[in-house]
Amino acid sequence: MRRLLVLWDVDGTLVQAGEVGRDIFTEAFQAVLGRDPDQVTAKALVMAGRTDPEIALEFLAAHQVEGERHLPAFGEALVTALAAKAAVIRERGRALPGAKQVLAALGRTEGVVQSLLTGNMEPNALLKVASFELDGYLDFEVGGFGSDHHHRPSLVEVARTKAEAKYGTAFTGAATVLVGDTPLDVAAGRAGGARTVAVATGPYRVEELRACGADAVLEDLRETELVVRAILGQGA
Prior knowledge:
Layout: E1 4-8, E2 15-16, H1 21-33, H2 39-43, H3 52-62, H4 67-83, H5 86-92, E3 94-95, H6 99-107, E4 112-116, H7 122-130, H8 154-167, E5 176-180, H9 183-191, E6 195-199, H10 206-211, E7 216-218, H11 224-232
Parallel strand pairs: 1-4, 1-5, 5-6, 6-7
Antiparallel strand pairs: 2-3
């Protein structure tokens, strides 16, 4: 039986988490360094499509702080900060329209394994999707997370290796599909040899996502059958 590994981005693809991302980086900085970060620098952080460790290293470097030494503590502080905002995420955030229906439809499709490929630290990714009851469709044991590697393209192979070990099947080439909402998601999938499906549910429009080489580009996840066909490689 042919197996397909579908790797979902989290923020902007499956959920909107209540705009708490920048806040937790500020709080993590305060916890680790014992002082407030420069607010201009904090507001200038580019977060979409990047891993938490990558963002943290840039944030620390902008404050003339040696990042690698502080990175483990910073990652733990990000997890603590987001956990404290669980109620805020549920109150202000949401699953994006159609996300649950597509996850459920793929969950009924023989041979499909679904997990995450996200720049979030693993506990933070799980908290976000569980906040909107999307976690039951995903196999977290085979995902790729910012806590696995700071380099997003490397997470494709991280996830494949976990999936092969668990399922005894090699998910090479087009047997892995990455679904995301940014050019960096598309670039990560392409670098890892995966098929890419881009959705214009984040900060980038259809034309921008198409221009960066996604195999399929969709406005959103609302049309379940259309989205499933795109992910399965049956045309968008």
